[in-house]
Please model this.
Amino acid sequence: MRKILMLSVSLLFVGAACAQRVQEQPATVPETVIARATSAIVVDGQGNDDAWKKATKIPFIFPWNDVTKETPQSTMARMLYDDQALYLLYECVDPYLHAEVTEKDGPVWEEDAVEIFVTPNPADITAYFGYEMNANGTFLDYMAFEGGEHSTKSIQFAWESEGMQLQTSWVGTLNDHSDVDKSWILEMAIPMENFRHLGGTIPPQPGDMWRLNLNRTQGYKGQFSIWSDPGTDKASFHHSAFFGKAWFSHKAE
Ligand SMILES: [Ca+2]
Ligand SMILES: [Ca+2]
Ligand SMILES: [Ca+2]
Model:
């Protein structure tokens, strides 16, 4: 078991070290507001619930690809919350849909996948939860610990979330690259209970701030993209010092 986990760790970092930086890192990390969901969200991979219309749109940036010279495979994320769950919606433009991993905690980051790295405790951002989800709805979850900006990370894949709801949908053909696809959507609800163990207030209260980042992997003929630029020369996501700031609102925005 230990051997398998160590192999996974090495692949995690090899897989995220291809593209080279082309843009300046912003001087400050981005901030957003997570509105309270005021009506039910049905996690069906469609993202068409009324509640989503009031969520702040979060576009991803491309620190490692010159998207003035290549077509950006854009991503728009949204977040909402209530006392029960943190809700996420990712809408991904993607001409080549690729996701074959179906094993829980498998190497989804090597395929078309989106991620959230998050801690409810802004006083100690060296530990955080990671969720990585591929386009067919398979996910990997873990707790990550780091000793500093560029230190060795410890990623505990054995940690398991409970009660996750997750669905995807797509326009195109999955794992058939003889055609050009259009897009995919991932919608999920992470029960708030899963955010315990690192400090912070669970469920979050209005005015609370969590540090987090939203990522998208390169996949097949794609681009690494992200909400908050980690400042690395090559695409690399595990840098909590550069997580963005997400403020919980008492109302629907
Ligand atoms: Ca793709
Ligand atoms: Ca796990
Ligand atoms: Ca296809």
Observations:
- The chain has one domain: 2-248.
- Residues 1-17 have pLDDT under 50 and may be disordered.
- Residues 41 and 207 are 22 Å apart (CA to CA).
